[in-house]
Amino acid sequence: MTFNDRIFGVLMIVLAVAYGWGTTQFNEPFGGAEAVGPETFPRLLAAVLALSSLYMIVRPDPDNAWPWSRTGIELIVAVVVLILYAALLQPLGFIISTTLAVGTLCWRMGALPVKAYITGAVSGVVVFLLFTLALDLALPLGLLSFLEVN
Amino acid sequence: METLGYLMDGFGVALAPHNLMFALMGAFLGTLIGALPGLGPANGVAILIPLAFTLGLAPETAMIMLTSVYAGAMYGGRISSILLNIPGDEPAMMTCLDGYPMAQQGKASEALAISAVASFIGSLVATVGLILLAPLLADFALTFGPAEYFALFLLAFATLGGITGKNPMKTVVAASIGLMIATVGIDSTGVQRYTFGTLELYEGVDFIIAIVGLFAISELLFFIEEKAGGGKEKMAVNKLTLTWKDIRNILPSSFRGGVLGFIAGVLPGAGASLGSFIGYTLEKKMVGKKGYFGKGDPRGVAGPEAGNNGASSGALVPMLTLGVPGSGTTAVLLALLISLNITPGPLMFTQNADIVWGVIAALLIGNFLLLLLNIPLVGIFVKLLSIPPMFLLPVVTMIAFVGIYSISNTIFDLYFMVAFGVAGYIFRKLELPLVPIILGLLLGPEMEKNLRHAMEISDGDWAILWDSGLAIGLWVFAGLGLILPYIVGPLLRRRMQAGGSQVD
User: Fold this and answer.
1) Where are the domains positioned within chain B?
2) What number is the ipTM of this complex?
3) For residue A64, is it within any domain?
4) HEC assignment per residue over chain A
């Protein structure tokens, strides 16, 4: 099966065209147009990408299998955990969000839940203390901000 | 003799107590990174860059620390090759061939000690080579004009896949993607390109976020997919009984390996994998029938290990003198230089002499530190090898998050990093190499600047790009870099595989 490279090649040609078209939307540089303006280099790149993607469509490599079913869901879970981790870092604070994120990842990768969340909590506390005490960098405390000593 | 004076100054920088401390820390961390499964050298150095920033280190200290990490990772890679038969990174593959059989015969600690000595000699030979060659190359590079630089960058991309690379066209696709990402932001004439009015994109895409996302996050996803969270069974390590004679026996192999490795490291398109491969095959030829290669011959450990380390020091030559890295890890080191506001290239040898020579001296000192660290402390590293990836990788991911967050304290950067991680996973699935993307991100602005300069000089005549003999030479080599893999690539790959399957 050689679908992956072909589909990716088509997507990249679409990108190259969109990117190349984007160069027509630039404003004129302040000092007036020159031999090589802001659009020259991007246009070269668009041409190179379009040609090399075309090659991928014509001579594709054999596919690597995508992980459908369970493993695929695990991967989506992992990405969702990472996005939630980023989103909750400030509201929940570093220690709590790290416990949840690292714990969930360890658990989903096969660790026992108790061990997983303990790993998360310990790593969160250690890194937090290291950053605030030794490196003097503030990480958000969030819900735990009542512990703040000021 | 001028070089010697600079080197002395370099030692002055590298021997300053705090620099020495960070070199030691870097060497230790590097060995760890190299030894631990799922943490390649490029990945490890990338995660440490944001931390080097947040620590507020001086440029030379940051460079010294991360160069030590780089050197250490090459030492560490051999530990899992020998004990687990899993190369920590690609160049360590050849070390498995005789290292693992040695471990199976209950000579694991001898194999580890021999490989440490060989690594030391390989690096030492190559660092001396670096000291001799780098200033010459830097002087020569001063004659380069913008057109030559443009051609040189093309050469760097074309040879990145190496002559053993599988599909050079994919390197081109990847490089274009990287270069395209690099054009996002406000360009040198003040024009906004591809910012879509988003304030966060005005300054362009921070390549550190891209590197950490592409490497660290995609690695996590790969481990989840392969369900490799449990880790592998480890080999018991016996008590070390190494005699002086054993060491003397491997010295010639180590020297030969080191020299070959250095040459392979300097040349574009060869790289450390080829260095260790040539090191191994040459040893096999030299020793002939008296050897027992593939069945645990110490010389089969020493040759490729010295070659691998020699190549990694050799790879610093083009990175430091021309500003064009030839490998993933040196590309990450280049990222550090650029973010420290140091323009890599020949001028660095005069403008930032303290940094360049400090790093070179640190490499020499680091080698002694690594030898000292690696022989007595090998037990600790072996213990750490048994940490299962299911605990290790989430924690590493967390450290990547903290590092990126601490650069600018914005959540936007974290989303960006995760997006790069998912993209990196897809690219790796498609066997699209990641290093050209990173190199594109790093070199994009310089490449465009040189193109513009060249065109200004010629008043818009494109012929200037291939107007000098040097430029034509570079174009020819770039072309060969793309064509040769189709001709000799399959042949070389088959041989390397044949060598690799002997133990199985």
Assistant:
1) 2-500
2) 0.90
3) no
4) CCHHHHHHHHHHHHHHHHHHHHHHHCCCCCCCCCCCCCCHHHHHHHHHHHHHHHHHHHCCCCCCCCCCHHHHHHHHHHHHHHHHHHHHHHHHCHHHHHHHHHHHHHHHCCCCHHHHHHHHHHHHHHHHHHHHHHCCCCCCCHHHHHHCCC
Cβ contact B173–A52 (<8 Å): yes
Q: Is A73 on the interface with B (CB under 8 A)?
A: no
In tens, the pLDDT along A49-107 reads: 999 999 888 888 887 777 777 788 889 999 999 999 999 988 898 899 999 999 999 99
Place of tokens 């026992």: A112
A59/B169 CB distance under 8 A = yes
Instruction: Establish if A63 belongs to a structural domain.
Output: no
**What residues of A are in contact with residue B414 (Cβ under 8 Å)?**
85-86, 89
Residue window 200-229, chain B: list those with CB within 8 Å of chain A: 217, 220-221, 223-225, 227, 229
Q: Are residues A74 and A135 in the same domain?
A: yes
Do A53 and A103 lie in one domain? The reply is no
Mark whether A139 and A108 lie in a shared domain: yes
Q: Are residues A54 and A73 in the same domain?
A: no
Q: When comparing pLDDT for B326 and B401, which is higher?
A: B401
Residue A90 counted as domain residue: yes
User: What distance in Å separates the CA atoms of residue B42 and residue B28, rounded to the nearest whole number?
Assistant: 16
Structure token digits, residue A114: 């108790």
Is A40 in the same domain as A81?
Answer: no
- With a CB cutoff of 8 Å and minimum separation 6, the contacts of B233 are none
Q: Which of B398, B421, B452 is closest, CB to CB, to A123?
A: B398
Distance to chain A for B50, nearest Cα, Å: 13
Q: Provide the mean pLDDT of chain B.
A: 82
**Same domain, yes or no: A49 and A90:** no
Instruction: Report the residue from B193, B390, B429 with minimal CB separation from A111.
Output: B390
Q: Cα(B104)–Cα(B98) distance, rounded to whole angstroms?
A: 10
If asked whether residues A21 and A81 sit together in one domain, one would say no
Q: Is residue A83 part of a domain?
A: yes
B421 touches chain A (CB under 8 A): yes
- Closest residue in B to A66 (Cα–Cα): B429
Query: Chain B contact for A43, CB < 8 A?
Result: no
To the nearest whole Å, the CA of A143 is away from the closest chain B CA by: 18
**Residue A85 belongs to what domain range?**
69-147
Say yes or no: A132 contacts chain B, CB-CB below 8 A.
no
Q: Which residue has the higher pLDDT, B454 or A34?
A: B454
Q: Would the CB atoms of B405 and A89 count as touching at under 8 Å?
A: yes
Taking contacts as CB-CB distances below 8 angstroms, the residues of chain B near A64 are: 429-431
Residues A75 and A9 in one domain: no
